[in-house]
Amino acid sequence: MKDKIQAFYDKVEKYGGWQQVPAARIYAIFEEIIDPATLGFTTAKPGLLARLIDGDIAHVIKLRALKGASYDVCFGVSLSYVPYPYVPQVKWHRTPKSANLDLFEEPQVEWWRASNHKAEEVNPYLVNVSLGEKCFREELSRAWEGTSTQAMSWFDAARSLQGILQKCAVHLSRRQDGVRHLPGPRLVHAFTLGKLGRPDEANSELDKFFEEYQENAAARANLQSALELISLPNG
């Protein structure tokens, strides 16, 4: 632990001390490094890039603020047929401007879950914004270099509703510890089954979601109505 603390202060000295990167520069550098146009993405909002696949699916890359003056890059899909939030009212996100990460990957979290890292190792997917632009640019470049190939392969497999079902299955097979995000794989799975015209399976998955998340009566009623709506032929 002492070595890790010393390494941190050596890093502070290397970059010339504490220098908070302004938000505008954070997002500008993010776009410089990702170069969204070459990937077919557009800026939906600061720190969030989207690429429409069809009326149901949009691919998303997000620069996410974390605790401790850190950011990470996560990627996934925004689904027009999955409501979130769903209380007090159901809201849909059907345009790039309203894109939401409904099902997504977190490379920095998966790195922590790996069991073969030494205690003194630094997570290569975390990006510091308190040590100036040079540090931020270098660490974001490193994080994206480690993420980009995985992200592009993931996107290639998530271009259809069947592909979304497969991604849900992978998520649901993982160890379910740590922070549970909403809407999450169980709810996405239920609504994707509904969208595919498989109502019995969809309702079974929705019941599992209610049990796992202990949702209240209002949430249950809203989600049940939303599932019925998107399960219609033109839903």
Q: Can you characterise this structure?
A:
The chain is built from 9 helices and 6 strands. Strands 1, 2, 3, 4, 5 and 6 form a 6-stranded antiparallel β-sheet that branches. The chain has one domain. 49% of the residues lie in helices and 14% in strands. It is an alpha+beta fold and 235 residues long. The N and C termini lie far apart (55 Å). The longest helix has 26 residues, at 132-157.
Q: Any chance you could write out the topology, listing elements then pairs?
A:
Blueprint: H1 2-14, H2 23-34, H3 36-39, E1 42-45, E2 48-52, E3 57-66, E4 70-79, E5 103-105, H4 107-113, E6 127-128, H5 132-157, H6 161-173, H7 184-195, H8 199-213, H9 217-230
Antiparallel strand pairs: 1-2, 2-3, 3-4, 4-5, 4-6
Helix pairs in contact: 2-5, 6-7, 7-8, 8-9
